[in-house]
Amino acid sequence: xxxxxxxxxxxxxxxxxxxxxxxxxxxxxxxxxxxxxxxxxxxxxxxxxxxxxxxxxxxxxxxxxxxxxxxxxxxxxxxxxxxxxxxxxxxxxxxxxxxxxxxxxxxxxxxxxxxxxxxxxxxxxxxxxxxxxxxxxxxxxxxxxxxxxxxxxxxxxxxxxxxxxxxxxxxxxxxxxxxxxxxxxxxxxxxxxxxxxxxxxxxxxxxxxxxxxxxxxxxxxxxxxxxxxxxxxxxxxxxxxxxxxxxxxxxxxxxxxxxxxxxxxxxxxxxxxxxxxxxxxxxxxxxxxxxxxxxxxxxxxxxxxxxxxxxxxxxxxxxxxxxxxxxxxxxxxxxxxxxxxxxxxxxxxxxxxxxxxxxxxxxxxxxxxxxxxxxxxxxxxxxxxxxxxxxxxxxxxxxxxxxxxxxxxxxxxxx
Amino acid sequence: xxxxxxxxxxxxxxxxxxxxxxxxxxxxxxxxxxxxxxxxxxxxxxxxxxxxxxxxxxxxxxxxxxxxxxxxxxxxxxxxxxxxxxxxxxxxxxxxxxxxxxxxxxxxxxxxxxxxxxxxxxxxxxxxxxxxxxxxxxxxxxxxxxxxxxxxxxxxxxxxxxxxx
Lengths: 415, 165
Ligand code: SF4
Hints:
The complex is a heterodimer. Helix content of chain A is 31%, strand content 18%. By secondary structure, chain A is α/β, with parallel strands linked by helices. Chain A has three domains: 21-149, Aconitase, domain 3, CATH 3.30.499; 152-237 and 250-264, Aconitase, domain 3 (2-Layer Sandwich); 267-409, Aconitase, domain 3 (2-Layer Sandwich). In chain A, strand 2 (29-33), helix 2 (37-47) and strand 3 form a beta-alpha-beta unit. By secondary structure, chain B is α/β, with parallel strands linked by helices. Chain B has one domain (4-136): Alpha-Beta Barrel (Aconitase, domain 4). Chain B is 33% helix and 15% strand. Chain B has eight helices and seven strands, in the order βαααβαβαβαβββαα. In chain B, strand 5 (115-118) and strand 6 form a beta hairpin. The longest helix of chain B is centred in the middle third of the chain and has 10 residues, at 86-95. Bound molecules: iron/sulfur cluster (SF4).
């Protein structure tokens, strides 16, 4: 009996659990990447005990990969040396860690997956518990296989109705971030459900748990259903049978009901993710860069939306339009289906897969006074480069329309 | 004299230490750039034992431990805030950087006040205006980790199961 998080934790604990309890649970996978693994190695060495189960450790190179400078290269080398020394089986460098975790089948309904990355919440799209932790706890979990969790209270976001053409999961999630605010979900599980979610394909669903991080949530969850099972069976090597864990007579701290059919395209404006406006209020604002990438919105279907809108056209000559597919698998499929050629013909710069420009190290850094519109999940001051630059967050369709005009543009006129 | 350094609400990890400096994990190196964009004078003039006084949701943003490590590296004694972001809260406990939740202190302390903190009792004294504040006590379970000086030290002498007993 309980909310989705209580039900997921109860399976692992082997008994019913309630919000407020502290549990020490076995974790199924322990994720870290090139930016956070070096500190986990340090914690591991300081503890001085052996790794419990190598198979549960999954390491990625994505944040600064291929290395843009010597220090990043040294980080990679350090990690590779460690992988060799310990004989670790999972070192991956085929895209943004969260996308690759899902593609490679590490994420299944009811799994407990911790990651040294705040957007590990993404795994909630599969009905798994995913949460971000610091590197030290990752090192601890390598040794113990366990992690402590306080069972969180739950905010249920009930989404009804059907979105208008040109309005996507990203617009709905940005709207939610505006409503709840950037600390509105702190220490909470945010459960997304309702007929809108039920009818949504997996690539759109992922946006909600991914951006639950932006409102401070411990996890963002969508209960596994037929869509989840189909996705896992057709798109990933994950092996079933999969359990469709559902909330059972849940007691929610708060329920928020939103009818998405009334929503128009939304933008998170500089400098905070909860500085949300309907696009019409910022329409026409000049942008220097359009960045289509990251674990939020650089999946195949996102790139397809952009390619369809740019086909046979040219992006604005003074706007850098950078497309960074979330993973190599996505890149390859986009290439095979001619999307990459369309993007290049339109004047986009297509880069290798990974986090790209998202953290301001390479692949599209902003100068002082510049403004970017991106499909990312956060717009912290200075995140993409100069502290005097500005970041606006929107859907891939809004990004494509903006790429054509060089100004923030409503996608509905270009679909 | 322990000086209070005040910061605003929703201080995120990029403001504590921008991503481009996170290429090292050396606390002293990180400390050189801590708060470099929001308060550049901090890194230059902070003294050991000074106190950070933040706004609500302090430490939001990424999971990077570089942020609390940079603050610890600057030799600040502790952070006082009305509330902390979730991962940052865990990270501080795990690395042994004391954090105190105390809205009353935050509302009353101004930058430059001489502030003394008794970590064991959670009492905060403002020597500049003579006021005293009581921070909410850390949960028992968290205290065990904090008292060991962080989770790594805890595990050197304990089994992880000992956290729960
Ligand atoms: S794409 Fe951006 S938000 Fe996602 S994991 Fe990489 S750096 Fe983090």
